[in-house]
Amino acid sequence: MQYQSSRGQSGSVSAAQAIVKGIAPDGGLFLPDHIPQLTMEEIKSLAGLSYQGRAQYIMQQFLTDFSADDVRSCVEGAYNSRNFDHDKIAPLVQLEEGLYILELWHGPTSAFKDMALQILPHFLTVSLTKTGDDNEIVILVATSGDTGKAALEGFRDVPGTRILVFFPQKGVSQVQKLQMMTQEGNNVYVAAVEGNFDDAQNGVKNIFASDEAANALGQRNMKLSSANSINWGRLLPQIVYYISAYADLLAEGSLLPGQKINIVVPTGNFGNILAAYYAGRMGVPINKLICASNANNVLTDFIKTGIYNRNRSFEKTISPSMDILISSNLERLLYEVTNHDSEKVSGWMQELKDQGCYSIDEASRNMITDLFWADYSSDEETIARISRTWQQYSYLLDTHTAVAVDVYEKYHQVTGDNTMTIIASTASPFKFGASVARAVMDMPDKAGEFELLRKLEEKTGWEIPNGIRSLEEMVVRHNTITNVADMQDTMLTLLK
Ligand SMILES: *Cc1c(COP(=O)(O)O)cnc(C)c1O
Q1: 3-state secondary structure at position 123
Q2: How far, in Å, are 24, 31, 272 from residue 7 at the CA level?
Q3: Domain residue limits at 238
Q4: pTM to 2 decimals?
Q5: Does residue 21 lie within any of the structural domains?
Q6: Can you tell me the distance from the alpha carbon of 97 to that of 222, in angstroms, rounded to the nearest whole number?
Q7: How far apart (Å, rounded) are the C-alpha atoms in residues 223 and 219?
Q8: Does 320 sit in the ligand 1 pocket, CB within 6 Å?
Q9: What local confidence, expressed as pLDDT, does residue 129 receive?
Q10: Which residue among 53, 62, 68, 433 is least crowded, i.e. fewest CB within 10 A of its CB?
Q11: Looking at residue 37, what is its pLDDT?
Q12: In what order do the strands lie in the sheet with 480-483?
């Protein structure tokens, strides 16, 4: 299988090359030239395998330049009991008849980003041997909070790599910030950016596009790559858990082969829901993909109207990992629904860059509205949903997952659709514990973050994940702050 850029100007490359490059040289995103198909028989037979077995089977179809041993060693290096605290890796929990939560946060940093970022370094190491690249790879990341920590954990002390993470100084939770500032490892660098996530992301995109940066790094035998969800190696592992969830439901007899499901995804950069779309294209029967946003509801408007308009104020919410106005991975969906029309896609992306706004054609729009449904929830609704879900089901939602559950309730009210539904749960409630604690119990305004987490644990009987519990005692090792304009210089200084 070959990969090509959504902007059409980068030729065809192997999976290994797409993973090493991260972003295509023409500024587009790499996509597979076709989508492998799974028959219902194949999905049924996956039900008999472990998560690791399923992952291997599915990933191999996209990584045709990897040997079976390559793929197996990547999968085993990532999804094991050292890294994940649940033997099913991505377990389904039933809330009620026909409604399931897919818990994607059993990895080391307690957010779903681990599902991809535990395996990406393995993909990259294998890919580097195939492309014959002997530069040191510098992984450059802009994070809205969770990617940064997950990437730092994934890449720490991986030979031949260094990792530099930029996070928005005021855009992440206290736990997220501490997780990054205390990061250990010999090849890790962290800097706070004076700005929001879009500022940090744009700064990183500019560095990727800068010949000056490439030359300066080249002189040190270093080369940039990306661990953001623009890297195909991030997206591929996410396809696996949707297929795996369907296989689990088949295995337990909750679904008949071929029966359709809805999937609800709390969405920011559009990576996770795009993976659900690919699972559907591969053969998982999908009724609706429900795109849930917070007050930064650009995607809600886009899916409802076909107009993407980022010219609006950036809202800081209690679900910070979804505080995004430019959802990069949407470009991949546009490429798919236009049947790989890179000229059209490039045009829209140029309009987005120049005017902050673009409008898609009728046919593409219909393709999207046939499959997707979208809405958003405010912070108040999110808090109320955490509280309500705890009372109803004794199930504790984090703020992002709560947005998804709340939007699903809206969908259910509006449509009356009773199709079996899976809601992607993207973080442990303790990762955003301050908001969650306030939703389920009365807490004094001045209570410290860790005090809140302990009270939450006491009240609910849910355990604080180890990686979060240990933060309180860890030493801060990264104090760099940079403004957006200086990000490139900051990078070159840190990487000395
Ligand atoms: C990153 C993240 C999201 C958004 O996922 P995208 O793939 O960017 O749409 C949602 N919830 C949490 C907890 C996250 O970390």
Answers
A1: helix
A2: 9, 10, 21
A3: 92-107+233-431
A4: 0.94
A5: no
A6: 53
A7: 10
A8: no
A9: 92
A10: 68
A11: 98
A12: 222-226, 136-142, 161-168, 188-194, 480-483
pLDDT averaged over the chain?
95
Which of ligand 1's atoms lies nearest the C-alpha of 238?
Answer: 7
In short, whether 109's Cβ falls inside 6 Å of ligand 1 is: no
- Cβ 115 vs Cβ 151: under 8 Å: no
User: Number of folded domains in the chain?
Assistant: 1
User: Which ligand 1 atom is the nearest neighbour of the CA of 271?
Assistant: 7
Return phi, psi of residue 227, to 5°.
Answer: -110, 5
113 catalytic? Reply is yes
Please tell me the distance between residue 123's alpha carbon and the centre of ligand 1 in angstroms: 21
Tell me the residue type at 395: Y
Is the per-residue pLDDT at 313 higher than 90? yes
Question: For position 257, which CATH number holds?
Answer: 3.40.50.1100
Task: Give one DSSP letter per residue of 427-456, joined into a string.
Answer: B-GGGGHHHHHHHHS---TT--HHHHHHHH
> Which of 294, 400, 431, 468 best tests ligand 1's pocket when mutated (most atoms within 8 Å of CB)?
400
Cα–Cα distance measured from residue 18 to residue 436, given in angstroms and rounded to the nearest whole number: 39
* 487 belongs to a structural domain: no
Write the single-letter amino acid at 282. M
The token pair at 392 is 């109803």
pLDDT tens for 405-457 read 999 999 999 999 999 999 999 999 999 998 999 899 987 667 788 889 999 99
> How many Å lie between the centroid of ligand 1 and the Cα of residue 145?
9
pLDDT, tens digit, 9 for 90 and up, residues 178-232: 999 999 999 999 999 999 888 998 899 899 889 999 999 999 999 998 888 889 9
65 vs 116: CA distance, rounded Å = 19
Residue 22 placed within a domain:
no
**Which one from 21, 44, 113, 344 is the annotated catalytic residue?**
113
Count of other CB atoms within 10 angstroms of residue 314 = 17
pLDDT value at position 494? 96
Query: Looking at the chain, how many residues does it have?
Result: 496
In degrees, rounded to 5, the angle at the alpha carbon of residue 31 between the alpha carbons of residues 238 and 209 is 105
Ligand 1 geometric centre to CA of 494 (Å): 28
Q: C-alpha angle with apex 117: 373 to 2, nearest 5 degrees?
A: 75
Q: Average pLDDT for residues 367-375, to the nearest whole number? A: 98
d(CA 113, CA 425): 11
Task: Please give the distance, rounded to the nearest whole angstrom, from the Cα atom of residue 427 to the centre of ligand 1.
Answer: 9
Q: Is residue 166 part of a domain?
A: no
